[in-house]
Write a structure and sequence with these properties.
Chain lengths: 277, 254, 282
Amino acid sequence: MFNIFQYGFIQNAFIAGSIVAVVAALLGYFLIVRGLTFAGHALSNVGFAGAAGAVLAGIQPVYGLVIFTVAGSVIISILGKRIRERDVAVGVVMTFALGLGILFLSLYHGFAESAYSILFGSILGISQSDVIVTALFSLIIILGFGYLARPLMFSSFDPEAAEARGVPVRTLDIIFLILVALAISVSMQIVGVLIVFALLVGPAATANRLTPRPARAMGLAIVLGLIYIWLGIILAANTVFPVSFFVAALSFVVYLPVRLLSSHWWGRGFRGENVHA
Amino acid sequence: MQDSIILENVGVRFGELSILNDVNLSIHAGEFIVVLGPNGAGKTTLLKLLLGLIHPSAGKIQILGRTPRRGNQAIGYVPQHRVIEPETPLRARDLVGFGLDGHRWGIGLPSRARTEMIDRALEEVDALSLAESPVGLLSGGEQQRLMIAQALLTDPKILLLDEPLANLDLAHQQEVVGLISRICRTRGVTTLLVSHDINPLLQATDRVLFLARGHAAIGAPSEVINNETLSRLYGLPVEVARVADRFFVLGAEL
Amino acid sequence: MSMLDLLRQGFVQNAFLAGTIIAVISGIVGYFVILRGQAFATETLSHVGFAGAAGAALIGINSLIGMIFLTVLTAIGMGTLGQRVKGRDIEVGMVLSFMLGLGVLFLSLYTQNATRAVNLLFGSILSVTREDVMLTLGSSVVVLIVLIILFRPLLFASLDPVAAEARGVPVQTLSILFLFVLALTVSQAVEVVGALLVFALLIVPAASAERFAIKPFSVLILSVVISLFSTWSGLLLSLVGHQPASFYIVAFTSLFYIISRLAPRFRIPGRYRELPHPSREV
């Protein structure tokens, strides 16, 4: 089972996957506390258009992804502030990008196969240079994130007070989503655009249910993310199924019991909204 | 005078949390009652009891001679105000119309009688000119009046209003109080109004129902809002100051 | 082949029949989705549809049946969780990604056939069979009947659940029933535009329509018109231009949405003035 590590591409997938899992878990935590899970999902779908466009233009998919997801994150943060309106606006951007992606691909020759690997990822093709690109982008994300950590935290939990303190809440919104866009771009090659979401939100959602302390939750999310991706790659290398399936299934299978049981051990204080009848 | 609401030894518990405890009161037909009390004292719970949305864990409740039940047409209810999204695709007229037939199955065809009834209710709350406006674009006070019109459409005998004055400025508070008191007097409808502040309502109210720590006291404003009664209810020393015909409660959260 | 010859082809007729039926009910159901703020739940149900269709392919039954089965099951699950579903994006999102993973699994078990996956995700309206059309018609009739019966209380409960409940409207039951209707509609929409693009047909027309009109019936009719126009034009263009129909449909509905966002917000002419306060003393 472990002799798979003799293959170069598996080693590459492991390194890239680990980096991606760490970055995704960190950003996922903030996606959840900021109520932007749908935006995260939409951005990864926007990435499909980018990757498809890159395939058509004959460049590396990751560059197409970066261009499209960054543009998408700017558009999404500019559109509607209100939740209800935002969901729809975000959804329109998302579906339009998906439509564009399918147009790009239909203009290209290897239509279905390229679509499949963009959507669901493929660890077979990960080269040394992909690993380097992933590492570079992740470094940018981590640095940007470290610089923004405190105001990001403040404005996530109390936007009005943060604004009063001079935190540029709107600008922070845009920058945060751009970081998410970059993370999605580098994750896509391994898990595919459709299931990047599982890697972003899955670990953090579970961690959030297990501890109310932000630092612990982030740490726990990273650990969970790493476990999911490692197990996913090992299982995928030994079966015919893509990594994305295992990552999605693992994060759901862990999340479900935690979600169902946590309401018991959190007690009343946590679910405050139900108490006042 | 006939009693329209009677509570006998009523208690409500959620698990270990006791919201109301041995509450006894009777409210006469056509009375205007202001329900006061700190957050979590059970004001909204009381309204939900009367609406039949929750059941008492102890005691007996009678409304117009019957036990509370869901969908009682004899009760008009104006819930706590929520923000209506500006984009909500609905006219004021549609919102008010829910009061008439929002609970009936089927599409419901427009009819002249229906339009006239809605117009009359809108007129009663001085909102006829708003009938065709998108609800989301109206001000808080205007939306509040629409909700009152909605509650009036079934010609109720009892009107329950949950914090209708919250988020309104003084002028609009006066406007809404005047409107509710006029409806109460002309229609002879029993009115229970939940509020955080008695002062804007002093002229209009008959009696005050004060809830604190699950206990209740009812009576004329000066009978209830005084040092002894409030200290007994809160279980700690409370002082009431009366300045220029306004009540101020010191030493306790209201 | 001329356009007319093309329109005589069976597969083209099937596509138009199915497209028309689905556009109409999507336009109607979308109105309620917008009103209830369930855009994300819709998106999730469409991904559930993908898993259902892939599972159906695996065991060799009609994909529409597979989709309906799994989406209805999920809808009932989400409905019993109650109002909590609405605000809780995380739960909905977790189900969404799990269902995508499940779909991929089914497809890999079925065959390593990428074309199949792409058809499910992006629609294959031109391969709709007469049997599909009949199934679509049947479930659309169910959807329409249920909606006609629920219309008023659903509108009430969507807009003001607290007052509706006090009035005796079974808010929780309605929410489950609506999700059931939504599940049926989503399953059919997947047939036309694919699991990933359901949003375009189900939500975008209604979201655009609500900016142009204010009476519930006007919004509904406008929403149906927009989705019909987009579907028909998309189908025609795809026959002429050989690009996927779903791309054109998405492009059209997005265009309508952009126009609706740029157009000034609808006002009733003459009657409505900026925040009129009745000056009457009370």
